[in-house]
């Protein structure tokens, strides 16, 4: 073939993919289209007989048309068969691909300890930040399947991990079931029967591991036979109770001689007890003998405290979450001479304080937290804690003026090497905060001030931080003592924080006095005319960060008109 000759298209006899023969698919033309022949058009619209020549032509065409139609029909059947075959093959390949993904999935290479951690997270359904501890409590409900049961039904490897873990040792029971109507009684009875079966299996699977238990207790009169059976199943393992949450939801809890009598003296593993009740009305002595009990959280009426028999002298970590007065606070502190950590929720002042003039010695107390307290000054006036390291006054909505004398006296009596102090208040003016800073122990290394973040002439972060400025020694030899010379971590939320605070931080970083330590971390937040990025990008801030100061800023910018709710984060 010469170069000038046009190349002919390559003809394929069959499709390379499906194998269907391609011959016969080309359009075959034996002459002009039938409908375009004038003679045929005339015959189609009349009943005239075709002339012999036309008749012979039509017979010839008819034979070819039938042959071509038969060929097309055969080709279509072949194509349809190929399509079915290809679809079947595609389905098989898709199933194979799915199998590859399942077998090669990275989840198969996850170590057992990682699965165990994930499973433990799956069982967490209760976390009370105010309780003082983080406990994993698996929520038990009569009409729900526990996460460990669901996990162990997935596959044999998951079941093996679950069986070797402590997932089964977190149990919660609501025993105060109200049976109500006949239909409800029938449904509840069935649910309780199922709960009893699964509870016994769960306790069996937990082996000898310590139990974390959450109980919602009824009065004796509210107990059904099945709820009593559930309780007996749990109390039979009281020697393994380690962390216990007990809530009485009844108005009158009554004596526990019948409800929890079997656990009295059988709590050798109990370390943590969280007890809540709505009303007083009965003696609770089941927890009187628990040699390892160290952590106690109570949420009950102050009038019922004398009815709860506990090994008070053993308690090291205590949290009282009920509203009470300062007299109750002091009585509780007097019961726990070995206390290490204590948190009191709302305290009201007492008019006729019986502890007035008596200073309780809390020689082991290292952490003391008071939340939303009006009467905390009466507590501070009657205690001293020489080992105190961490002190927090949170959500104090009263003016600081009435507390300064009590705080100063407390610190002077205690002579404690306080390391961390947190103060949260919305009504304390800048001048009062400065007075507070002056009476804090010089040993303080960490300070957190959470004040009003909104613009006001009475609240100025600049004024407060200026009090922490380290002044150079005067040429005459006189010097101004630096407040909190050992301070290294500062967190302040206030209004009117400007670029001037950088001078204060710089004075402490480059202090000539060797007794003044440089700051390591500063966190600023609140409402300010200065944008956070402007402060961070200031040359002084850059220099401070280069010297080792970790500086974080998150300001609010008031939009006109300025008010306490019209601010946006920058």
UniProtKB/TrEMBL annotation:
<keyword id="KW-0175">Coiled coil</keyword>
<protein>
    <recommendedName>
        <fullName>F-box domain-containing protein</fullName>
    </recommendedName>
</protein>
<feature type="coiled-coil region">
    <location>
        <begin position="69"/>
        <end position="96"/>
    </location>
</feature>
């Amino acid at each position: 073939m010469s170069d000038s000759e046009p190349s002919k298209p390559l003809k394929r006899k069959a499709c390379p993919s499906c194998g269907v023969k391609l011959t016969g698919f080309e359009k075959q033309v034996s002459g002009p289209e039938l409908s375009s022949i004038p003679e045929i058009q005339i015959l189609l619209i009349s009943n005239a007989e075709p002339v012999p020549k036309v008749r012979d032509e039509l017979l010839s065409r008819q034979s070819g048309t039938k042959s071509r139609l038969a060929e097309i029909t055969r080709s279509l059947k072949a194509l349809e068969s190929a399509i079915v075959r290809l679809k079947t093959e595609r389905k098989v390949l898709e199933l194979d691909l799915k199998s590859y993904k399942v077998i090669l999935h990275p989840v198969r290479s996850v170590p057992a300890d990682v699965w165990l951690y994930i499973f433990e997270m799956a069982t967490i359904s209760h976390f009370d930040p105010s309780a003082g501890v983080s406990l994993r409590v698996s929520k038990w409900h009569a009409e729900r399947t526990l996460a460990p049961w669901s996990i162990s039904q997935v596959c044999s490897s998951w079941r093996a991990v679950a069986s070797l873990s402590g997932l089964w040792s977190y149990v919660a029971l609501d025993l105060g079931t109200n049976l109500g109507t006949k239909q409800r009684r029938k449904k509840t009875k069935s649910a309780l029967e199922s709960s009893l079966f699964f509870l016994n299996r769960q306790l069996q699977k937990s082996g000898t591991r310590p139990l974390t238990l959450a109980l919602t207790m009824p009065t004796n009169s509210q107990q059904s036979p099945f709820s009593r059976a559930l309780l007996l199943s749990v109390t039979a393992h009281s020697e393994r109770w380690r962390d216990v949450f007990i809530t009485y939801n009844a108005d009158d809890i009554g004596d526990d001689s019948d409800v929890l009598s079997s656990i009295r003296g059988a709590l050798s593993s109990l370390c943590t007890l969280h007890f809540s009740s709505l009303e007083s009305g009965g003696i609770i002595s089941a927890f009187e003998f628990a040699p390892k009990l160290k952590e106690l959280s109570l949420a009950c009426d102050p009038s019922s405290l004398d009815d709860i028999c506990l090994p008070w002298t053993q308690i090291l970590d205590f949290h009282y979450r009920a509203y009470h007065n300062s007299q109750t606070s002091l009585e509780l502190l007097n019961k726990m001479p070995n206390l290490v950590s204590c948190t009191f929720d709302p305290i009201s002042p007492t008019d006729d304080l019986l502890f007035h003039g008596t200073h309780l010695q809390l020689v082991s107390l290292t952490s003391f937290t008071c939340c939303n307290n009006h009467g905390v000054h009466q507590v501070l006036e009657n205690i001293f804690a020489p080992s105190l390291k961490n002190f927090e006054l949170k959500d104090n909505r009263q003016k600081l003026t009435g507390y300064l004398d009590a705080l100063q006296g407390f610190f002077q009596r205690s002579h404690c090497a306080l390391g961390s102090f947190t103060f949260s208040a919305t009504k304390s003016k800048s001048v009062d905060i400065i007075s507070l800073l002056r009476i804090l122990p010089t040993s303080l290394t960490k300070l957190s001030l959470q004040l009003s973040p909104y613009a006001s002439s009475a609240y100025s972060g600049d004024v407060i931080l200026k009090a922490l400025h380290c002044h150079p020694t005067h040429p005459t030899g006189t010097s101004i003592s630096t407040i909190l010379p050992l301070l290294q971590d500062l967190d302040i939320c206030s209004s009117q924080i400007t670029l001037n605070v950088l001078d204060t931080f710089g004075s402490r970083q480059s202090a000539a006095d060797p007794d003044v330590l440089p700051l390591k971390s500063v966190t600023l937040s609140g409402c300010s005319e200065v944008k956070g990025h402007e402060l961070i990008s200031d040359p002084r801030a850059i220099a401070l960060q280069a010297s080792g100061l970790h500086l974080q800023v998150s300001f609010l910018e008031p939009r006109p008109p300025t008010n306490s709710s019209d601010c946006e984060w920058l």
